[in-house]
Amino acid sequence: MKEPIGILPLWKPRGMTSFDAVKEVKKIYHTKRVGHTGTLDPDVDGVLPICLGRATKLVEYLTADKKTYEGEVTLGFSTTTEDASGEVVAEKKVDEKIREEDVRELFNHLIGEITQTPPMYSAIKVKGKRLYEYAREGKIIDRPSRKVSIYHIELVSPVEKTIDKNVKFRFRVTCSKGTYIRTLSVMIGEKFGYPAHMSSLTRTASGQFKKEDCIELHKLRALQEKNEQNDVLMPIELALRHYPKITLPQELEQKVMNGALLPDTLINVDEPLIAMYNQQGECLALYELHPKRSGMLKPAKMLKSV
Length: 306
What we know:
Elements: E1 6-12, H1 18-29, E2 34-36, E3 45-52, H2 59-63, E4 67-75, E5 77-79, E6 88-91, H3 100-110, E7 112-116, E8 125-126, E9 129-130, H4 131-136, E10 146-155, E11 160-161, E12 167-175, H5 181-192, E13 196-206, E14 209-210, E15 215-216, H6 217-225, H7 236-239, E16 245-247, H8 250-257, E17 262-263, E18 274-277, E19 283-289, E20 296-302
Parallel strand pairs: 1-15, 3-13, 16-18
Antiparallel strand pairs: 1-3, 2-3, 4-12, 4-13, 5-6, 7-10, 8-9, 10-12, 11-12, 13-14, 17-20, 18-19, 19-20
Helix pairs in contact: 1-6
């Protein structure tokens, strides 16, 4: 059976880990070469692009793409996990009125680069061990803060007061790789002077893959029964369409597939990565400027070799 090659824009359901989603896709496509492009917590649903076959070479690039989420923040109590699944650790009833204009003003101040400390319940490794493993042992350890970027954030619901004197509202945010929306929700609460947590989250876009591009697992299984699961795979080239593109003359195609260096006179753009295509419209490799040899391009990622 021919190895499937392409990108599956999967809609991951709530209650399933990203690991289990990948495991299910491996079974459906009968392949081991599968990789996802950015973990979603079990309680989060949304866009999870999964690479199959040769497309797994693109995982690092697709993971680095910006993401868009729709989330809900609840002011009034915080939790161990910074989301609705954790135990309550701090409470403070919201007695003042939080106005929509106050939220919008706060959001304007969040746009740009911010510093986050990853939550203890996260998959980041510190000293060879994942943070959530320390957390399950009841340990809180120092973890490195990091800078992330908020490109856009907006209020998408009224600000509501709940019967137990908490406040909640929904927001849409586009951010860089590595942004924790749970931690952002806690930060929003802190700015208003209240403990807070992320009470709901959906990823609506990952890079250029959006909700409307996605397929659910039950529909994928139905396609498998008809042996039509490959019909929903998106070509590698679709994921690379935002990179500058060079269609190679036929005499250079073989050289590129052998990983040869090329003169930078082939390009007239100042971009970190350039996609090299053959005459048939297949992307053979991503190239970059050679760091040591002036005037030359070298392969950054080989996608099709001899």
